[in-house]
Input
Amino acid sequence: MNTAQTLDVRAYINGRKMSGYQWLLLILCFLIVATDGMDVAIMGFLAPDITKEWGITKAAFGAVMSAAPIGLAIGAILVGPLSDRYGRKTLLMCAVAWFGAFSLLSATANDVFTLSLFRFLTGLGLGAAMPNTTTLLSEYVPERSRSTLLAIMFTGFNLGSALVGFGAAALLPQHGWRAVLMVGGIIPLACLPLYLWLVPESVRFLVVRRFSADRIGRTLRRVVGGDVPANASFVVSEPSVQSGQPVVTLLSSAYRKTTLSLWSTYFMGLLVIYLLSGWLPTLIKDAGLPIERAASITALFQLGGTVGALVVGYLMDRVKPNKVISAAYVGGAAFILMLSSGSVTSSMFATYVLLAGFCMSGAQTGLNAFAPQCYPTAVRATGVSWMQGMGRFGSIFGSFAGGVLLTMGWGFASVIAILAIPATIAALSIIISSLGRRQAIVA
Output
């Protein structure tokens, strides 16, 4: 009679090399994040054509521009508990279908209210997709290289944002803004059957939610490979928590310090990034440079962020991750101060923009890679999604604050310099995460 063998899924994944299927999962998550980035960035490229066609002011179009970010925040907050109950794959597939469908519907809008509504609904799906890709991939890759691999996945967001710009440039002259929105919806919907076929449910989720050993074993063999015993029973070595009320768990004594530090860090980081990336072209133009030069300098912020994400992710796998993230935020604050004290015509100005993007966006991506290891499987999706959702309010506030400060007559140096404060708060806040009692043993 065969004796059942107990297999720790976490240790099994950590003890093996990445399989071909795990690399495929990384590519699939990269593609989902890229389409997410496309639909998040799309309205910025279409706004001039829509305002001209409808004969409305930029201020009137502000409702459309703010609708998706609000949806992103709410979508992220709503999806976490659902994902921890019904599964990462289930909610991820629903999110992709949702934002693809409403991006298509956005192309049918004929007034500001309808377009704002559809962009808000699109944002709900976009906000739901990112936490699920983060959680799903983090639960399938070895912990020794998890931060690097998640950073690679997140570069898909920048790629998608850039590609939609090229796509808009190609489609707008001949086909108009509606065609761009249609493509933004068709691409994720066309990829959905591929995702349904190839993306697996998280094996850690299957264990924690007590699915059959047969399904867990088949999933583990398919994705990770190796000789999984046919009669094995499966466990995940991590602290056990009540899965029925995940938000309550996040704010329990065991996780409260970690949770609040992640929320405040993500909020402050996105406040800085969105104010800088959104208003830097205007600030540079107002300081005396042509708009073409202002746009090219601002693009360096995004380029630096892409490289910074990879470097920060690599270092996080080799040094205590919250210290790496904190150091990156400190570097961001320093380069922001250099920006504020320098002249836009200085030869070093563009370099400071590049390095500020390297540090700030690198730290922000690192935070996305760091959050999954702070919570056990039963509440991991909620932990990641609520961090991202709370942070999205920082992006909304940052975009709004930039306009208010400029309206109040603040100059370039003052607006930029004040951003060193939230960057420093982010650096201090992430260090506090190490004081969470269980953070060090949850992965």
Observations:
- The chain has a mean pLDDT of 89.
